[in-house]
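Quick bug: ABC transporter substrate-binding protein output formatted oddly.
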Amino acid sequence: MTATDTPRVATTVPLDWNEVWFTNCPMVSANNVDQELGWCREEFKKLGVEYAYFRHAPENNWYPHYVHNLDNLIRFGGLYPPIHVHADIRRTVLLGATWVHEGGCMAVRSRDPLFRIADLRGKKIGISKSLNTIKNDWWRIQEHMGIETMLKIHDMTMDDIELVEFPYPDDWYDKPAMLVPPMNNPSELWMRRDHKHDLAFRPLETALRDGTVDAIYTQSKVFQHLQEATGKVKMIEDLSRYPDWTIQVANTPAVITCTDVMADEHPELVLAYMKAMIKVGRWANEHKRAAGAILNRQTFYLDAEDTYQGIKDVDMVPSLSAMNMQTIGIGKDFMVSHGYIKNDFDVADWARPEFLEKAAEEVLKEEWERRSWSKLPAGGGLDVEGVRLG
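Here's what came back:
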């Protein structure tokens, strides 16, 4: 029996509300910065709650990251898996989002006489297909959405090209080396793999290089510069260069989700997490190069400077802004219309902005108390009346 034939099961530790687990994707987010700062852990210590990376416990395999079957798990990561979870698996709560313009590129071999999307008419474009059915096929959705958008911009459709499907095992989650505990920090995962050069994360690149296909989709900025650095690949289209922000959905925005059980029965835990994300996001906004150096350890930018260039205009404080909500809706609608989820839902109903709003209020209150203490005779909080500073 091969790895792909082996039944996969998402295993978890017993539920204990004195613990909160976190998981994230190797993307731009405050959580990926915080895993090195530890500010979120401090917020939970104030509550007497243990906060840890979900793979720290051997009972948790990798699949809770995709199916959210831990009630006390908070996830900050790519858009498509949590949409799938909320639509078809279990109810979750949308808490915030961080958006990076990474609509995607069309990659071809560097010496091929292909210079624009129109040159791909009648050519072969690859698309991956995960054989791991327990999890969402987020790579394929991203490729599908990006390819379709690029063709549409150039007055073409899928009928104008030959789409070549590449099934792959997508089974690294089940390999013994990836299940060795404990992992105290997501960065430990990437210590076990040369993730910036591991083609398991770029399953179509080999097919492009050897000429099996003529073009493949890849992410703008991330992956793009790693692939170009080989000298074997060039980009003939880049959606991130267009002014149309609605075409920048590429498993982004990264979103924060928790279970409805956590939100309804233990709101103080959600609030602690969101306070930390605001604090870390503000720090990252003020120290973009330091944040870039941290994120470079986990993401797929070329190096720390490339990471900085990718995040320098990104607001690292999570939000549920109107644009973020629209982009989440765009991603969800694509998944519905192309059969990647079975059930539709209203994104506005998914969001619970009260947690972000309350967290922001508490962060500002704490900041006021710190700053006012040295100026007022007896200190003071926001409820101090009749006192003017200055």
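Actually, after a second look the formatting is fine. The chain has 15 helices and ten strands. Closing.
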